[in-house]
Amino acid sequence: MSKHTFSIGGVHPHDSKISRECAIEKLPLAPTVYIQLSQHIGAPAKPVVAVGDKVKVGQVIAEPGGFVSAFIHSSVSGTVKSIAPRADLAGNPQMCIEIAVEGDDWADGIDTSDTLITDIPEDNKAIIEKIRLGGVVGLGGATFPTHVKLSPPPGSKCDRVIINGCECEPYLTSDFRTLLEKGEQVVVGAAILRQVMGNVPCTIAIEENKPEAIAHINEVIGKLGYKGIDVMPMKMRYPQGGEKQLIDAVMHRQVGSGALPISVGAVVQNVATALAVYDAVQKNKPIVDNSVTVTGECFPRQANLLVRVGTPLRYIIDYLGGVPENAVKVISGGPMMGRAVANLDAATLKGTGALLFLTAEQTLRAPETNCIRCGKCADACPMGLEPFLLNRLAKADKLEDLEKNAVQDCIECGCCLYSCPAHIPLLDNIRMAKGAVLGAIRARAAAKK
Amino acid sequence: MSTLTVSPSPHIHSKDSTMSLMRDVVIALVPAVICSFVFYGWREILLMLVSVASCVCLEWAVTKYMLKQPSTIGDLSAVVTGILLGLNLPYSTPLWVVFIGAVVAICVAKLTFGGIGQNIWNPALVGRVFLLVSFPTYMTTWGAPQGVVDAVSGPTPLGAIQEGLMQGASVQDIMAEHGYSYSSMLFANLGGSAGEVCALALLAGFVYLCVRKVIKPWITLSIFATVAVTALIFWGINPARFTDPLFNLLSGGLILGACFMATDYVTSPMSVWGGVVFGIGIGFLTMMIRYFGSYPEGVSFAILIMNSVVPLLNMWFKQKKFGRK
Predict the structure, then answer these.
(1) What would the mean pLDDT of A157-163 be, rounded to a whole number?
(2) CA distance to partner chain A, nearest, from residue B88 (Å)
(3) Any idea which of A190-204, A259-273, A399-413, B174-188 has the lowest mean pLDDT?
């Protein structure tokens, strides 16, 4: 058994990867797609098409709205029907470009073949530009624009690139299937990333519950003859795939409060991002689709689907047989950090990794009872915080004490609420307190100026 | 599916609840209860039933009629208090005295402070100490055993030692006179309350709780280590005046206290190091009371005293935060 894992806290939920045997299949094209202009961290993109324009697959339809922003490409070919606000999965209005699908006509210059291209261009600047033009964002959840992450501030030095293949959230299997089915592309993507960061070593971290993926990627690395890339099997533990936790597990370095991974010499990219980097650099193919796990014990047909960006959730669900009668919650993402879907007419984003259906028995919370001071929340917190204390301070609105007790360090992984035997909504209260404390910190900074 | 539920993450739970944790504690206490039945017979079971029933009924009645709050007896914490109180009493304790102990434990030590999670001192121990100082005769009288095996009646080993020392005998003479041996202490056929006599059964329960991850072993181990080290020092200085480490580990309520009372979530520190310091305090105070106090046994007092400083220990000993100095 490998010993690689992070040093503080964590929980062991059942991995529930019931869709692991389902090979990635292409979802037929939806009749209409709705592509959101803000599907990354940073400024929303600005549309560069007008209603009535004909677009092709992979054509730019929106440009970055700032440095921290990303290109958005049409995921289908057809006619732009509208550019208007539309409810996202939480029900909030978001600007979307609506495109009626006509055929499947790809833009010029995009290599749609399956041929593996292993020769990596030498010019790193050109590579980063291709990644930027490909609209690549971090697909592990945060959707941070990748070209920004690959352009560290001057003076900082990268020692290692980590490819995050932990997929520590229960149920999710899209990264696992990608490793098995697109292992070569992921490894070439990893090679590109390590070259860009200055030929540093690269570690592909995979949890032990995916032995097939570990064996396959080792085989691929041997076959391609790449030096400097290795696979590290990780002990199964949530939230191993958290950026700070993974760096701690792989490099035994702890990223300080409020600091970026590059401050300890690490750059972390998700498996799906490595694949997107390969596509953008080697095939000129921007992000137009991504794999989505559709799963849940109550769901009739488990699947890992290749879905075009902007496909309505209802279209995906209906393709697989509709929402089961006994499902009470649909989650975009995993059960620990995913978001509950309020609107099934919302469309997928680049970062949509899963749709999970849970029954009342699986997901509804028990009534809150008295804290019994068992300390399980503090044991579970991977940031070493004291959720019971933060919860109490949050209820009393003690912003200064909250800040002193490092409430901003909370990564919202959910381990505290998951393990609380008294079913206290620890994370709900802490999340709200975080917002209030951030507001106070900003107000203080503004007052100083 | 008619409506979708929307709530913040996480969307799943470990399925642990206060009730499931307390249920594990009850399961862990079963060997000790069986053991006490084997030594003391039906009277012990009757005492245990009265203790548990009093605790549960009192909690139900007080929450319903006085506090007018939803009942909390479903979390089984009153059952745990009842069993622990029962294990702390001589099997011959009159049942009305047992009931008074339950009133003090549940009504005074637990519900007055706001119920489960809010109390400062371990309820069962408060009940026991109240009875010890109010009814010393009942609490130190060990009537004839009625169990299925031939248990020895008479004073507890700690009581006998203190008695003997006051009469000027040496520890070795007293032990020889009463025929104490470590194996008899481990397998329990010496005088004492039920919880004092079944060391092996109690340790089995402790191991169960650790394996089930209900408790962490640090507090208990820290108490054992401190008792052993303190006893070793004094015994090394004067073996005629002070009892040896193994005797102290096996005698009295140390094992019950260290395994089940000091590890009570509500009244023990949260962090590992806080727990270790808490354990050192209990172990040291226990030995001071045993060697120099007027009571032969000091575990209950030691735990209650250390319960009082838990808020301070929680403040002083925090776990290291990720990426911070």
Answers:
(1) 95
(2) 23
(3) B174-188
Give me the pLDDT at residue B38, please: 83
B31-90 residues touching A, CB cutoff 8 A: 72, 75, 77
At residue A230, φ and ψ (nearest 5 deg) are: -135, 160
Instruction: Measure B6 CA to nearest chain A CA, in Å.
Output: 5
| Domains detected in chain A | 28-110+287-362 (3.10.20.600), 124-283 (3.40.50.11540), 376-448 (no CATH)
Contact A328 B1 (CB under 8 A): yes
The runs of H, that is alpha helices, within chain B are: 18-40, 42-61, 77-87, 95-102, 123-134, 136-139, 157-166, 171-178, 182-186, 194-197, 199-211, 218-237, 245-250, 254-256, 272-292, 299-308, 310-316
- The residues in A 380-409 lying below 8 A from B, measured between CB atoms, are 382-386, 388, 406, 409
Q: Which two tokens stand for residue A110?
A: 């995009």
What is the 3 state secondary structure string of A92-160? CEEEEEEEEECCCCECCCCCCCCCCCCCCCCCHHHHHHHHHHCCCECCCCCCCEHHHHCCCCCCCCCCE
What is the per-residue pLDDT for A448?
A: 85
In 3-state terms, what secondary structure has residue A71? coil
**Chain B partners of A338 at a C-beta cutoff of 8 Å?**
9, 11
The residue type of A35 is: I
